[in-house]
Amino acid sequence: MSHPVSVADLHFAYPDGRQALSGVTFSVGKGERLAVLGPNGAGKTTLALHLNGLLRAARGTIRIGDLEVTDDNLVEIRRRVGLVFQDPDDQLFMPTVAEDVAFGPANLGLEGDELEGRVDEALAAVEATNLRQRVPHHLSGGEKRRASLATVLAMDPGVLVFDEPASGLDPAGRRELMETLVGLPVTQVLITHDLPLALELCPRSVILDEGRVSADGPTAGLLGDDELLARHRLEMPYRLDGRKSGR
Fold first, then answer.
1. pLDDT < 50 positions in the chain
2. How far, CA to CA in Å, does 96 sit from each of 41, 101, 109?
3. How far apart, in Å, are the Cα atoms of 79 and each of 36, 64, 95, 202, 235?
4. SS3 of 150, please?
5. Residue 241: its pLDDT value, please?
6. What per-residue confidence (pLDDT) applies to 247?
7. Cα(99)–Cα(119) distance, integer angstroms
8. Sequence-distant (≥ 6) Cβ neighbours of residue 58 within 8 angstroms
9. DSSP code of 23?
């Protein structure tokens, strides 16, 4: 049985010659929440953009279920993989939240009651029904995050990929986001350098550094290894035993 996400020997270099990914390999199980951790410049966002075909690898393969990410399959890949950008304003551009959420499914050909139902379901899934007629740029940071997530859920993806999902959120917004993500019954990949978020949400993590997977295992075990974290320029704001980190 195929995994929802399988990445094998992925290599990618930018036009200036900078090697961003060097043989990345991992898979994600059905319904799993996986964190991809690493310092700035590790290749995390580059990897996220490969998972739904926005960037294309020089070498290696990505499969989403039984489908390989190729030019011929891009429309279906982008329906299956919802990418939630770090800045919600990148995904909110219509006069109302409801119109933003309807935009993707409408482009797939949904209309009438079927389209309205898809919008209602997506907003309800992130507890944003009350935002339906709001103007997106008037929303708070947490509200924008939920609205942008609804625009992705409306496409009915099997996989969600988040690039720094808690960036810019206050503590209440952060807590609301975590509760929302735990309640979503889809495979999730969280690209983040926010180690406490990963610890709370993701039973398993991979550490990406210099474009390579340097570690793959239970999140609590990885984040409890001070030497491992130091080697990859990562730091918990507190130790797992509750004391503040001394590094």
1. 247
2. 35, 9, 20
3. 22, 11, 23, 24, 35
4. helix
5. 52
6. 45
7. 9
8. 11, 12, 13
9. E
